[in-house]
Amino acid sequence: MKQALASWCERDGLDYEIEAYLPELNQRPDILIGKLALEVQCSSISKDRLLQRTRNYLEAGYYPIWICGEKLAPKNKIKEVARSLCYFSENSGFYLWSIDWREKELAIQFHLEEQWNRQLHSVTKKWCFSSESLLQIFSFPEKRLFFHQRKHNTRELVQAYYQDLNKKLVTKDRCILEVQATLYNKGFHLLHLPYWFYYPGIRLFCCKQSDIFVKQKFFELVQFYGKEGICSEALFILAVNELEKADIYLIIFPNVSKKILIQQCVRELFHWLKVCQLIKKIENKWYYNHNIISDQTISFGNWHSQLGNKYLISATPIENMIL
Known about the structure:
The protein has helices spanning 2-12, 47-59, 80-84, 134-138, 154-170, 174-185, 212-225, 232-245, 258-275, 290-294, 300-306; strands at 17-18, 31-33, 36-41, 63-68, 87-89, 93-100, 105-115, 120-128, 148-153, 202-203, 279-282, 285-288, 311-316. By secondary structure, the chain is α+β, with helices and mostly antiparallel strands. It starts with a helix and ends in a 7-residue tail after the last strand.
């Protein structure tokens, strides 16, 4: 695979080195093209090691592009090592590079999303070796020449998610018991939360374990500041600051800054709040919708049936999301 990438560089007339030694880093990227360091990762690597190597590159002015080999490239689910190799852009969402020697293809999986059970959704674009400019391919995630939407059956996802939570409580799943204990201290029960907590059955990609911890932080913020009304910009800033304090619930992505990660998280949470009508806009301010919350006496089954055939539409770029 290194030789295939080297041949690709030669075809494109690029100056490159295979396993060039960088003494200031004590590292050898598989392929070095100027300040671009290509790393083909075929075996497992610890997250700490991956984080350190990435930081070393960035601090020295290099930009690393990690490419998954066949064993790490995700299919229905994504391994934690592969997750750590993900990138993020406004136009592509979370994305991941991979290479397939048998098919002789370089690929990008973008708009990565996970269902509550970690079932992976993505869009894949592939290039045959040496078919196009290698540098132009690596600029693909930042381009605005494409647009993608995904439609999720919210009713099915929410029902399956709620049933799984119920089952795990009964079987005393350790992770879910931790979630329940945290909620209990705040006067909530896992199965009797405002329904937004179960919506839309798509989990926050950047969260460790359950994303309910992060949702709880965001919900408390909206409850407090939404009483008197708050503008979008102020709510966004407050939410970003609050989640920065709660970063223990977030996954570290070596190739994505924490600031960008949290901003994306807040945008998704805010979008779901609007869809579930937990906040309403009056003039230029958002208000906490007490009427929706006070109606929580209805059963989950009745609320679930009210979803009917509604779908969640998610999209890249995110500003093209249909509400």
